[in-house]
Design a protein that fits this description.
Layout (H helix, E strand, L loop, with lengths): L1 H22 L24 E6 L3 H4 L7 H17 L4 E6 L1 H4 L6 H4 L9 E3 L8 H10 L3 E7 L4 H11 L3 E10 L3 H14 L2 E3 L1 H9 L16 H9 L8
Parallel strand pairs: 1-2, 1-4, 2-3, 4-5, 5-6
Helix pairs in contact: 3-10, 7-8
């Protein structure tokens, strides 16, 4: 009997300790260390700009290094992600006014804020357009995400000059396309050798999210479900397709 009482007594003590420890246990985010979003060495919603270069139907039609539907899914996902994290989007096209080229496709254009005025160019190198350079400069941000068509043309020339001007460039390789895989890959190699950082849209988005403590992880006024929902719609269904 004494042994039984003793066991019960010790059991009570152990349970009390467990309960007390649990009551004062750390929350899941207790060890998360936040960083200054403007001076962070990684991508954040406060230090990054997105360039949307030449997402025009006549250029899209020529892309064969990646499935066009996959590529279009990716650019839509990236623009949504930029909007979610308040990353400035700079939209530019080539030859719409001068050469009769098609404008930015509606599926992308509809995601870009109406406050953003498209910059139409005559130069293949977007960095040789004064309005575009000024638009980037006004943001005060030094990290630039570059997307565009065709990889071996406008995105490459733009990247090389942006790097030369001291910016940190991230080339979103799944948001570029060319007529051949060789043309695309060779251009990517050239940009990387010059100092550009190759990346993908979901990697950039996750880097800006950084933690599930980010209020944009699950909720947003414009994008229901936040970044998690963007991933569910645009990333998971395309796993293994490119």
């Amino acid at each position: 009997m004494k042994t039984t009482k003793m066991i019960k007594s010790w059991t009570t003590v152990v349970l009390a300790v467990i309960f007390t420890t649990s009551a004062f246990a750390q929350k899941p985010d207790a060890n998360f260390v936040p960083k200054d979003a403007k001076t962070d060495n990684l991508l954040t919603g406060d230090n990054t700009v997105l360039l949307v270069i030449d997402w025009q139907q006549d250029l899209i039609n020529v892309v064969h290094n990646i499935d066009q539907d996959v590529m279009m899914n990716n650019i839509r996902a990236m623009v949504k992600t930029a909007n979610l994290f308040n990353v400035p989007v700079i939209e530019t096209t080539i030859g719409v006014k001068m050469a009769g080229s098609t404008p930015t496709v509606e599926s992308v254009k509809n995601l870009i804020s109406k406050d953003v005025e498209n910059i139409d160019r005559v130069s293949l190198n977007a960095w040789q357009n004064k309005a575009l350079v000024e638009a980037v400069g006004k943001t005060g941000r030094k990290k630039i995400l570059i997307t565009g068509l065709w990889t071996s043309g406008c995105p490459t020339y733009t990247t090389l000059d942006v790097l030369n001007d001291g910016y940190e460039v991230y080339i979103l390789t799944d948001l570029m396309g060319d007529a051949t895989t060789m043309a695309h890959n060779t251009a990517i190699d050239r940009m990387v050798q010059a100092g550009a950082i190759p990346f993908t849209w979901e990697g950039a988005g996750a880097e800006m999210l950084r933690s599930y403590t980010n209020p944009k992880a699950f909720t947003d006024d414009e994008i229901k479900g936040g970044f998690v929902e963007i991933m569910k719609e645009h990333f998971y269904p395309f796993a293994g397709k490119y």
